[in-house]
Amino acid sequence: MNDQIQVTSEIGTLKRLLVHSPDSGLGKVVPSKAQDWLFEDIVHLDTIRRKEYDFYIKLLLYFLDPEKIQGRLGEVDAPENHFNFYKPDHKDFYRSDKVVELQW
Fold first, then answer.
1. For the chain, where are the alpha helices, taking DSSP H only?
2. pTM above 0.90, yes or no
3. What is the model's pLDDT at position 41?
4. What backbone torsions phi and psi does residue 100 show, to the nearest 5 degrees?
5. Best exposed site among 13, 21, 39, 70 by fewest CB in 10 Å?
6. How far apart are CA 66 and CA 68, in angstroms?
7. Is the pLDDT of residue 1 over 60?
8. CA-based Rg of the chain, rounded to a whole angstrom?
9. Is 60 helix (H, G, I), strand (E, B) or coil?
10. Are 88 and 103 in contact (CB under 8 A)?
11. What gap in Å lies between CA 104 and CA 93, rounded to an integer?
12. CA-CA distance, 15 to 24, in Å (whole number)?
């Protein structure tokens, strides 16, 4: 079996992307280690999840796997859905083979 990864150019069409949703590990970054671990600042986990990461995933899906998101923005971001579209352990998770969540 030949499962080698081969990259022939850094310029080309993005077809698939691995992502990892922010989790409680970010809360364990202590100020004394933040710079060593290449963090510019200590982050607030809920802010990253709701205001930054979810928007980032929507953008990636829009370009890489549009059928998962187009026409559904109101539904996936509705408060009554509790952002389940972005939670890998939830049945309503987006499950894309082009924007691949490592926790899924």
1. 31-34, 45-47, 54-64, 73-76
2. no
3. 64
4. -95, 115
5. 13
6. 5
7. no
8. 16
9. helix
10. yes
11. 9
12. 29
